[in-house]
Amino acid sequence: MPPPTPPFGGGKDVRLWTLDLIKMTMTLNNNKELLTQRGRKGGGHRIEWLDAMRGFTMILVVAYHVAQFGFVENEKTSAALPFLVLFRMPLFFFVSGFLAYKANFVWNLKNTVPLVLKKLHVQIIPAIIFLGIFIVFKSKHSFWDGLLNALKSPTKDGYWFTWVLLQMFLIYYTISIIAHYLKKIKEKVSGKNSQL
């Protein structure tokens, strides 16, 4: 399948381009031979091209911030920033959500609680530490006032994406647990009906 036409090339609307990208990704996911996998400690597998795409989106985020804060560019006068704003964060969230899918995972509370704790450990603790360091250097008020102001701010002083990504995972995990238990209820009901 050829890659979708970029939004600036074929006159396609960005939403249609995004739908094409999703269709292509789902097609690739169904064709197992197109997925390059490498072994990992613990027996799991990583999909290299998805890891590379997530790394690429991280580089785009860094490039955006360097251009915005290091070179004092803004979206109205820069040629690059509007392009980076168009897809860097949506693509990052899309790839992160795609990697959150676990085909053989049993979605019950016993298995999900350690997964949530791991997400908190990996995402929120580093964000709080770096936010604290940022507040120490940036805030003109006391540390606690700066932290309170940062947590009240919609952007969380630049760390909004870690909170939103965690919320995305928690919503996905909750829906998966509910679906797991509904499936078990359906199996019990259909088992009782077959006995009658």
User: What is the CA-CA span between the terminal residues?
Assistant: 50 Å
Structural class: mainly alpha
User: Poorly predicted ranges (pLDDT <50, ≥5 residues)?
Assistant: 4-12, 31-43
Please tell me the overall pLDDT.
Answer: 77
Shape: elongated
Radius of gyration: 21 Å
Q: How many beta-strand elements?
A: 2
Our count of helices gives 6
Q: Which H/E pattern describes the elements?
A: HEEHHHHH
Report the major sheet: 2 strands, antiparallel
Main β-sheet, spatial strand arrangement: 1-2
**How helical, in percent, are the residues?**
55-70%
Strand content: under 5%
Explain what this protein looks like in three dimensions.
The protein is mainly alpha-helical. The chain has a domain of 95 residues. It is 70% helix and 3% strand. The chain has a two-stranded antiparallel ribbon with strand order 1-2. A hairpin with a 5-residue loop joins β1 and β2. The chain is elongated, with a radius of gyration of 21 Å. 3% of the residues are buried.
The gist of it:
With 196 residues, the protein is mostly helical. The chain contains 6 helices and 2 strands, in the order αββααααα.
Describe how the helices and strands are arranged.
Blueprint: H1 14-30, E1 37-39, E2 45-47, H2 48-70, H3 80-100, H4 109-138, H5 143-152, H6 160-195
Antiparallel strand pairs: 1-2
